[in-house]
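$ fold --in a.seq
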Amino acid sequence: FRVPILLTAPAVTLRNDSIDHCTANAAVYVGTGGKDYVITGNDIFKNTGIGLAMIAGGAGSKVEGNSIVNNNYGVEVDVIPNADFGGGAQNSLGNNVFSCNAVQDFWTVQTNGVLAAKGNYWDHQP
């Protein structure tokens, strides 16, 4: 699994970055055991894989104010409960933009659980 940004240590802040035109599996990947992140103010766009992949970690993280557009998948979250994308336990304001991602703007393999994602902007029905 190829990724340019791999978050595995807890309590890291990823702020005000542009991650674009990446040909890896994911532009930003939260690894196993990774938790308590603040991911804010980033532009994640035009990546051929997943923009933000929280497949194995991300519990207790706050994700707000990001623009995640024109990727193959915008966000994949496979561990629930996971990050707060708006209105959840970490008091995220949301304010993320999920738009024009080719397959899905937001994807999970989970069939039950609650994922907080209020106060965001979607270009299609979420």
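$ fold --in b.seq
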Amino acid sequence: MSKRQGLPVDLTEEQIDEFGREMDAIYYETLESRGEKDRLYILRLIRTQRSMALVGRLVIYASLFLLPAWGHALAGWPSTLIVMALGVILLGLAKILENMEIGHNAMHGQWDWMQDPALDSATYDWDNTCPGREWKHSHNYMHHTYTNIVGMDRDVGYSILRM
């Protein structure tokens, strides 16, 4: 085998085949390791995310009772804004969990093995910058096929959305 120019490592065909076997072994080991612990993890995460979103909304609503117009001892703009900010932070964290941990992984098919319709990659959708169908093409295909290639990987060049 001739030395390949520009590559940091020159592997023989046997080394490449061995590397492939090692990657396959990791893949099958991962498939075999999925189970109840993983199922409980994602279900607990979904409950946490939904609880944070609900509590965040309730906290924002409760902050309205701290407006100066109510005239009680705790009423005032500082307390209103602090409580409202807490609610906004909770909503923000819930959204991050939904998009990055639940939705991203569901649309990659990570949870398809559970056969849970709520986490099925074929039907899962979210309220993000684009619908799930479009995200799957731009992320699952374009990004994972052409990672960091300017003009091909859409995760490169979204400016304020993705860097």
